[in-house]
Design goal:
- The complex is a heterodimer.
- Chain A is globular, with a radius of gyration of 18 Å.
- Helix content of chain A is about 50%, strand content about 5%.
- Chain A has eight helices and two strands.
- Chain A has one domain.
- By secondary structure, chain B is an alpha+beta fold.
- Chain B folds into two domains: about 325 residues, FAD/NAD(P)-binding domain (3-Layer(bba) Sandwich); about 210 residues, Cholesterol Oxidase, domain 2, CATH 3.30.410.
- Chain B contains twelve helices and 22 strands.
- In chain B, the strands form six sheets. A six-stranded antiparallel β-sheet of chain B has the order 5-13-16-17-12-20. Chain B has a five-stranded parallel β-sheet with strand order 6-2-1-10-22, with helices on one face.
- The longest helix of chain B has 21 residues.
- The radius of gyration of chain B is 23 Å and the shape is globular.
- Classes of the chains: A mainly alpha, B alpha+beta.
- The interface between A and B is large, with 50 and 49 residues.
């Protein structure tokens, strides 16, 4: 799928109200989703997924012993969380709005957008931002999302082939979730007495 | 059956299970109203995302908040809904309640716990009282829990071993990690003696329940072999086979209607389809967990009970207690052990199961005061939680990048954290209670529980004494980075009190059989009845008392 086509596909999907349908996002694979639009409680937000990936790969880079946030498909996980109507609206808006705030911070202090900074400046900027109250809150939350993406069963669209678990020699418990009882499908389960 | 009665049970956790099971087996009709959905064993998995990172088995706080009070510097109490931050007191809103997700560390209360006031005297700012029954009254039911719910372990006699009617547990102890042996040796070297912890986990098959398969994901998760003695797996499933049980899930009771003569006639509930319905019954048993049980009584006010059901003495919601104390731990660095030992220490799934009872009573200023116990365990296997706790530098700034990843690699592959949990008596006091919030409503429009949960400074003092003992054992074992944290915060999953039982109707809500003094046909069988909690987790006592009340009901109906 070409990038433009993929972008349109994602855009149509979220606007179509098919929130939380992981396979749709999953089928697009990670790659470069570019700029997409997302709906949270009747408000539309533009998300630069390239910006997210660059930031998350500094928070969690690829090393000779570990995968990166991009390898873990943290961006797919991030979009999945943003589309989850069960998660508090304020928390999801926080995740979106502060991504742009990082860019605004760089434009103010470096006179350039984050993506235009060199590698050293990007790291330096995130370090400085992490010392601000809002910045620490936001980057800490992104770290948590990356961590969740790292250990989630790949049924959720991240952690392909268990690369997030394998580098830490982590063995998950069994049974693992299936399409029937993963989140959010599990929320729909309610047996009734004498059911067939 | 002659004289068949209808029993309406509100809730389906540990306090409800024995009632559902015993009354249905006795031939009575039992209608269970559970606010959460009905999930069966096959519906659960060891999925950290759904079970611990999302609100799957508890309601969203925006829909069903509590208002938590905090004390300002000027002493004034203010309330804040916990969807704006604060502790979440919901636990397992599903069939079987929070017993599905317990770790099953099972301790009996000890004989002295039933007479704290008589044995140890009053404590400043504490409403400590004696129980109206003795240990001997509850012992047969502790024994019954061992057999019916299934408790595994082994008895080693010691100074504070509770008297028992059975020689040993019906199920042998679960497999243990090598660290248990090291803990025993370390404790002995410094003059302490550790005891095996009984667990409500089957080590052998029982009926259609399989033995533990050592999944390594026990607490916070439902059991996939039914080895864990949840109310659902151990009691309700069997009760359903009697065909005397009607189980209505997604049925949230919001009002108990009385007939103007001190008798409940209907339980009104919000049903899954959005329609409010009611159940009529002869007997009503409430076991919705302590906070929600008090809330339901307070919500059920009418002309007859203007302050809430069974609350004409103003005692409902008062003297809420928690099983609390503190935590501690240390790091077992594999490099300090042989390769073979490190391999054994890294064995996953098998248990630590060691507890220190030696300081259940402490000598202080030439007098004896009540102490507590310490349970030893490994850090929970949940990796996401471990990673989140490690994302901070020593100076509390955010750690990220390759340094963070190196830290994780070391944490996950070169060491293991050994922890201890301290349990002491939470002193019942005037600043720990449930009321109704005058403003905040839940998604159905019902007033939510407002909680004031202040602890007594005495508890902190005892916790610190015990923490020293736990740290000393870890030090002797060779742990690094040893720490402890004695906290006045209540553990939301270990709640009791609010509807004390007692002989005086002016100072208690329930009588000796857990029937409300003021209401002819209302029984409360979750932890609400407990005036004090002992220095242990409550579940075994809740189960035992519920079996006791069930027997009383069967004999009296």
């Amino acid at each position: 799928m070409q990038n433009d086509q993929r972008r349109n596909f994602i855009k149509t999907m979220v606007l179509g109200g098919a929130a939380l349908q992981i396979p749709f996002i999953f089928s697009c694979n990670s790659g470069d989703l570019g700029i997409i639009q997302i709906e949270i409680e009747d408000n539309f937000y533009t998300i630069n997924t390239t910006l997210f990936k660059e930031i998350s790969d500094i928070l969690f880079p690829r090393t000779n012993f570990s995968p990166s946030a991009s390898d873990l498909k943290a961006d797919i996980y991030y979009l999945w969380v943003l589309n989850d109507p069960n998660i508090n609206v304020v928390k999801r808006q926080f995740l979106v709005k502060n991504l742009e705030r990082i860019d605004a911070y760089c434009k103010e202090y470096y006179k350039n957008s984050f993506l235009e900074l060199n590698k050293f400046q990007k790291k330096e900027a995130l370090k400085k931002i992490s010392l601000e109250v809002w910045g620490e809150n936001y980057l800490s939350r992104l770290m948590t999302l990356i961590i969740e993406a790292m250990f989630a069963n790949s049924i959720y669209g991240s952690n392909p082939e268990n690369i997030g678990r394998n580098w830490l020699n982590f063995k998950g418990g069994y049974p693992q979730p299936t399409a029937k009882n993963r989140y959010p499908e599990i929320l729909k389960i309610n047996h009734i007495q004498n059911e067939e | 059956m002659k004289n068949r009665k209808t029993i309406c049970v509100i809730g389906s956790g540990a306090g409800a299970g024995p009632i559902i099971s015993e009354l249905s087996k006795a031939g009575h009709k039992v209608i269970v109203l559970e606010k959460g959905p009905w999930l069966k064993t096959e519906d659960y998995s060891k999925d950290e995302i759904s079970m611990t990172r999302r609100d799957v088995v508890t309601p969203k706080l925006i829909d069903e908040p509590n208002v938590i009070e905090f004390q300002k510097l000027n002493g004034e109490w203010k309330g804040k809904p916990n969807y704006k931050g604060g502790q979440n007191f919901w636990n397992g809103n599903v069939v079987g309640g929070s017993s599905n997700f317990m770790s099953g560390y099972f301790h009996r209360m000890k004989p002295n716990d039933f007479k704290l006031l008589s044995n140890y005297g009053p404590i400043k700012n504490s409403n400590v009282v004696d129980w109206p029954i003795n240990y001997e009254d509850l012992e047969p039911y502790y024994d019954k829990v061992e057999k019916e719910v299934g408790v595994s372990g082994r008895i080693i006699n010691h100074k504070f071993q509770e008297p028992r009617s059975s020689d040993d547990f019906p199920y042998p102890p679960l497999a243990e990690n090598y660290v248990s042996e090291l803990l025993d040796k370390s404790a002995n070297k410094i003059g302490f003696e550790l005891m095996p912890i009984p667990r409500a986990i089957l080590s052998q098959t029982k009926d259609d329940r399989n033995a533990c398969y050592y999944s390594n994901f026990c607490g916070s998760y439902a059991c996939n072999s039914n080895a864990k003695g949840s109310s659902r797996a151990a009691l309700i499933n069997q009760a359903l086979e009697t065909e005397n049980v009607e189980l209505l899930s997604l049925s949230k009771v919001f009002h108990l209607e009385t007939n103007g003569k001190g008798k409940i006639i209907k339980a009104h509930y919000h049903s899954a389809d959005g329609i409010d319905r009611f159940i009529e019954a002869d007997i009503f048993v409430v076991a919705a967990q302590a906070i929600e049980t008090s809330r339901l009584l307070l919500l059920s006010k009418n002309k007859e009970f203007p302050n809430g059901l069974a609350n004409n003495n103003g005692q409902v919601g008062k003297n809420l207690i928690f099983s609390a104390g503190g935590v501690g731990g240390g790091i077992i660095d594999y490099s300090e052990f042989s390769e073979q030992e490190a391999h054994k220490l890294n064995m996953l799934g098998v248990f630590v199961n060691r507890s220190l009872h030696q300081f259940y009573e402490i000598e202080k200023n030439n007098s004896k005061i009540k102490g507590g116990i310490i349970d030893f365990l490994f850090e929970h296997a949940n990796p996401i939680g471990k990673c989140i706790r490690n994302k901070w530098n020593d100076d509390n700034t955010l750690l990220f990048g390759e340094e963070y990843q190196k830290k994780l690699l070391h944490y996950f592959t070169k060491q293991r954290k050994l922890k201890f949990e301290i349990f002491i008596d939470w002193q019942p006091n005037d600043n720990c209670f449930v009321s109704l919030d005058p403003e905040v409503k839940d998604k159905w429009g019902d007033a939510v529980a407002r909680l004031r949960v202040k602890s007594n400074s005495h508890d902190i003092e005892i916790g610190k004494i015990l923490a020293e003992k736990g740290e000393a054992i870890l030090k002797e074992l060779g742990c690094k980075n040893i720490y402890s944290n004695i906290s006045s915060n209540p553990p939301p999953n270990l709640q009791a009190g609010g509807c004390r039982f007692g002989t005086d109707p002016n100072t208690s809500v329930l009588d000796i059989n857990c029937k409300a003094h003021e209401v002819e046909n209302l029984y409360i069988t979750d932890g609400s009845f407990m005036p004090t909690g002992g220095s242990v987790t409550y579940t075994w006592t809740i189960y035992a008392n519920s079996f006791r009340v069930a027997e009383y009901l069967i004999n009296s109906l």
